[in-house]
Task: structure prediction
Amino acid sequence: MLPAYTAAAVRAAEQPLLEAGGGPELMQRAAYGLAMGVVSVLRGRGCGVYGSHVALLVGSGNNGGDALFAGAWLAGRGARAMALLTSTRTHPGALAAFTKAGGLILSVPEGSDRFCAQAAAADVIVDGLLGTGGHGGLREPAASIVARLCKIIPNNPAGPGPGPAATSAPAVVACDLPSGVDATTGEVHGPVLPATLTVTFGAAKTGLLAAPGEQLSGGATVVGLGIEDGLGTPDVLRLQTADLAALLPRPEAADQKYTRGVAGIVAGSADYPGAALLAVAAASACGPGMVRYLGPGAVAAALHVRNPEAVCTEGPPDSVRVQAWLAGPGIDGDREQLARARQALASGLPTVVDAGALELVSRAAGAEQSHLVLTPHAGELAALLTRLGKETERAEVEAAPLAAARDAAALTGATVLLKGPTTFVASPGGRTYSQGDGTPSLATAGSGDTLAGILVALLAMDTGRGQAAGADPPDALAATAALAAAFHGRLGRYGTGAPLNAGMLAGRIPAVWKGLSGAC
Result:
């Protein structure tokens, strides 16, 4: 599991070492790690250090010092290195080392044009303008310089792709985090140079696991500084492959269909039957003991063709026995389905609340909704927050999704899974997960119905194993929701490159599940 921390937590963990005089050693460790990041990017482009062209954007703080020391290391091994100083307050020791190694120094404003022209032909640009302490975006003159460079570099956080532009455009290595990305929230104000790689120091920062910052950071690597014991409780957690493998449920020898979990699904209507088909198909493919469908007979008839193993009824939720509910996909405008959804939410069982059922969620100060997992997208969350008294626009949720998910969890007392480029899961107790496993190919109609089906199946199979370790039930729900989000993202990556629609996702579940189970 990857933990991430706020800027304040990282600074507090560094403070004892700084007070003991360890600042120079920390900077040398960081600079060497940054230089190794540049080397790895150069190798990925088929280049060595010798003869490569590296351009450094240098700010006034320790971030600029890290960049200059890294540049000195590279210049000493044959790189053609130049640095643009954007402030008169440059780290003196790092500047001296860079100059001694043969690096070219340029300053603003007179050197800006030359730097931008030559940086366009560089192999790598090192972004050392702002670090963990930066807030509110870049200021002048750095903002204008970055805006100019953004015009010559493809806006592709994964780095240049194949083709002529890839061979000519420089890669970008960010020092600690891309300048202009808030280290604690991932929010962005003003221009940001998209990174191919971010080399971060001491620990991963929350802003590197939060949209939109994550999408601008490329791949991130952590350089250890020996501060791990002082970091405290993570601000955000991310499940990784080994975690998914450990959390996925497996049948036990004594199991029968009822002990393996029964998932109940209230979804679909005459207008939107497909939502039910997608959710049931996904839930069934995950292998619970049974999937029960509650809804219109016409939808059930279609399900009997596609998923004959599903048990269908037009009765109310209290007429059947399940371990977890899903309510909401495709029920818009259907009064009977809305009534079933209302009863499912009131059951006290773990319940996934999606789409049309979100209107049934209220403001709650206690634990009466702690069994719910809400699964909105940005627009739905904005509408929910507004209805609960916190006026919010969709654009505000997209700009600050982490804060929005936490606000919703606090207002409702429910676990909130906010879908997006980075999916956030926030529990009312404060535990938060960030999953960046998905791809843009999942942005298609019905993809959320598939995610909801996966989640209800996992809840029914009781994969919230945090309960056994003493975690609060909402934290266990959050862990399972994060597992579902990560697994759903892996479905989008399976067979990457081919066109994808939501109807194809359930068919990928067995192969992706098998692949992850083998990683345990």
In short: The radius of gyration is 25 Å. The chain is about 40% helix and 15% strand. The chain has a mean pLDDT of 92. The CA atoms of residues 93 and 344 lie 65 Å apart.
